[in-house]
Amino acid sequence: MKNLNRRHILSLGAALAVLPGLAATAASAQETSVDVAKLMVPPPLGDRVLGNPDAKVTMIEYASATCPHCAHFSNNTFPKLKAEYIDTGKVKFIFREFPFDDLALAAFMLARCAPKDKYFPMIEVLYEQQQKWTHNDPKAELFKIAKLAGFTEESFNACLKNTEVAKGIVQGRDKAEKDFGVNSTPTFFINGKILQGNQPIEQFRTMLDAALG
User: Domains in the chain, start-ordered, CATH in brackets?
Assistant: First the structure.
């Protein structure tokens, strides 16, 4: 997903200037792991979590809202994993924002400004409608999505100008890049073991089942 041009960036509010441009890439599974204790420290804005908080296995996803690989995972693979592992109490799922461009940052800012119970529904709709809101008039399309979560035009614009929310997301992304080597999306950690890219569901099942023992 290429970066937005300056016209698009300026149309979304001054807060977006805090994010430098990066390029997302697809990657493959790797047999490496990170310090789990360090990984489990929440980012500045806290974590958004689904599932049993005491589950034996924790799965963390770092994703960009404009990443097509992330959208494919969210729309096709995640619902099956959620039904099999998260809804059954086996796995705790944590979603962490890793925006690769200003538009992804704007989308994640809106999700963060929404009530907590609207966060995951907004993420789901953002991926379902990714092709729509990432083209033509992003701000207008994002507002349509935001209204589903109860935003008014005033609260929508205020969120996009909220530099604290923007900086919190960017700081979380920078920490993931520096401390855990995240440089592509989606990147997953299953009890600290890394899995990069939109892998077949069998790969997730293999790693989750191994972690569950």
Answer: 6-212 (3.40.30.10)
Q: Which residue has the tokens 């855990």?
A: 180
Average pLDDT, the chain: 89
End-to-end, the C-alpha distance of the chain in Å comes to 38
Tokens 């907004």, residue located: 122
Position 69: which residue type?
Answer: H
Burial 122-150 (b: 16+ CB within 10 A, else e): bbebbbeebeebbeeebbeebbebbeebe
Beta strands in 102-186 (DSSP E): none
Secondary structure E strands in 132-192:
187-190
pLDDT digits (tens, 9 = 90+) for 28-47: 444 578 999 999 999 999 99
Write down the number of H helices and E strands in the chain.
11, 6
pLDDT category, 100, cuts 50, 70, 90? Answer: very high
DSSP string, 68-121: HHHHHIIIIIHHHHIIIIITTTSEEEEEEE--SSHHHHHHHHHHHHS-HHHHHH
Rounded to whole angstroms, how far apart are CA atoms 87 and 171? 30
